[in-house]
Amino acid sequence: MRSAIATEEIAAPYAEALMSVAQSHNLTEAFGNDARGLVGLLEESEQLRTFLENPFIPGEGKKAVINRILGDDTNPLFRNFLMLLVDRKRIYVLSAVCQQYLALLRELNQTVLAEVTSAVPLSDAQQQAVREKVIAMTNAREVELSQKIDRDLIGGVIIKVGSQVVDASLRGQLRRLSLRLSGS
């Protein structure tokens, strides 16, 4: 098992190189869409992650699977980048590279990532309200939402932006009330 810190250190130069290629060809958003798709796929499929991380599977087999996954609409430069990761035996850092690329893209676009945890999926109006709250907190130009469901919250939301956490959940309100009452 590789350490997360080592993986991030290996992934950083690759993410920066991918960003450099994307900027020089005016493809930052297209690469961002491809990276988001791959991150989602890798999060959903344990089998795919295991396959790509297996050092005993030849590179040609990994390339064939990647080509099948990507389809025809993926930019050739992005596809070639993935083939380079296979050739350099760095495909195991694919998820980290894509996540770091997306972080660089958010920084470039002055967009912040808000991780929103709620008891139920948020409606479009609620998502917009969260975006407005985060923009007011951070002065960012745009907000990208990452939503998670936690049935234990009962109601409300927890919003995490960087190191800031806004706990507007019913569970959090009850905990604060309990602390105030026990402190009296």
Report low-confidence residues grouped into runs of 5 or more.
none
Radius of gyration: 20 Å
What is the count of helical runs? 8
Quickly give the CATH architecture of the largest domain: Orthogonal Bundle
**Major sheet description:** 4 strands, mixed
Sheet with most strands: strand arrangement: 2-1-3-4
Judged by helices, strands and strand pairing, the structural class is alpha+beta
Q: Shape, please? A: elongated
CATH superfamily of the largest domain: N-terminal domain of the delta subunit of the F1F0-ATP synthase
Q: Bin the helical content.
A: 55-70%
Strand content: 15-25%
Q: Class of the largest domain in CATH? A: Mainly Alpha
H and E string: HHHHHHEHEEEH
Number of discrete domains: 2
Total beta strands = 4
In short:
The protein is of the alpha+beta class.
Keywords:
8 helices; Peroxidase, domain 1; 184 residues; alpha+beta
Molecular structure report:
The chain has 184 residues and is α+β, with helices and mostly antiparallel strands. The chain has two domains: 4-107, Peroxidase, domain 1 (Orthogonal Bundle), CATH 1.10.520.20; 110-183. Helices cover 62% and strands 15% of the residues. It has helices spanning 4-24, 28-44, 46-53, 59-70, 76-87, 94-108, 124-138, 170-183; strands at 111-118, 142-149, 156-161, 164-169. A four-stranded mixed β-sheet has the order 2-1-3-4, with helices on both faces. Helix 1 (4-24) runs antiparallel to helix 2 (28-44), helix 1 (4-24) packs across helix 6 (94-108) and helix 2 packs antiparallel against helix 6 (94-108). The protein is elongated, with a radius of gyration of 20 Å. The mean pLDDT is 90.
